[in-house]
Amino acid sequence: MTEKDTVRFGILGCATIARKLARAITLTPNATISAIGSRSISKAAKFAVENSLPASVRIYGSYDEVVEDSGVDAVYIPLPTSLHVRWAVAAANKKKHVLVEKPAALDVAELDLILEACEANGVQFMDGCMWLHHPRTSNMKHLLDLSNSDGIGPVQFIHSTSTMPTTQEFLENNIRVKPELDALGALGDLAWYCIGASLWAKGYKLPTTVTALPDVTRNMAGVILSITTSLQWDQPNQTVANIHCSFHSHTSMDLSISGSNGSMHLKDFIIPYKETSASFDFTFGAKFVDLHIGWNVRPEEVHVVNKLPQEALMVQEFAMLVASIRDSGSQPSIKWPEISRKTQLVVDAVKKSLELGCKPVSL
Fold this sequence. Notes:
Layout: E1 7-12, H1 16-27, E2 31-37, H2 41-50, E3 58-60, H3 63-68, E4 74-77, H4 84-93, E5 97-100, H5 108-121, E6 125-127, H6 135-144, E7 155-163, H7 168-173, H8 186-189, H9 191-201, E8 209-212, E9 217-218, E10 224-233, E11 239-246, E12 255-259, E13 262-266, E14 277-284, E15 300-305, H10 310-328, H11 335-355, E16 361-362
Parallel strand pairs: 1-2, 1-4, 2-3, 4-5, 5-6, 7-11
Antiparallel strand pairs: 7-12, 8-10, 8-16, 9-10, 10-11, 12-13, 13-14, 14-15
Helix pairs in contact: 1-10, 4-5, 5-11, 9-11
């Protein structure tokens, strides 16, 4: 693939997650890093050296310069959530395609400003939910297909967690606990995955009601550190999803989906245990044997090998969409903006439920 065929990325900011995406872009055959910008040119230059970026990468001491760079096709935005709307809109207005970290915005009103700017300028939008791009995910999706006779049947129950242990330093100084930077806290940083996984399992049909549970914990500034919530679908199939997310618990990334005919489980749905492969198990037709002293079947384990890590697969898919728009005049895919918006709507509903004293909120 020639340099002309690749999608040229500019990175806005030097956050820790930007290191991961810089590596991903480098590993992706149809993408390259053209520019990196920070609030100080010395910080951007240090990032370039520490991440072994080629000498051809342009180093800027502001985000504006990256957005203005004619040699940049798309921007990756790992900035605090409070800055997403400003820089995503600015990038879209300069005809740059937008890959933004999750949560996509602080609320759906802000996200709509981003999506409207992207639509008006004919550029692709995608949020950085990497697990959706892993081949394991498409393998699992096959088992959710109601037309598949070997599937688990209509989904009835979903359980998901995203928890992580943190230090006192994190709880005092990390941007994810600062209301002026990432006011959603664990709801945006962690629950975005679990809400997204629940929507994914239901074919992105919005739940009927969303209810936050009263076990929420906050810091002194009011930012959510731990939260449990329930989503309920009434039609066409009744389904309940329970979600727990916390900055206080041992690391977990569980996803369990139970249907009328079977179930599937994985313990690492957000970040696989291994970079080059991932697995999940499923069970069909499980019953107890005589005297209830065991089961008639054991779970089957499916192993999925991937040539590129999931973050590179995300970049690859995004770059394919961008190249098709740039080189062939294709229209931006509406799939990814719609996924982000539905996820954001549920995040907003959880917030509203909390404000109402954990009463159900209808969608």
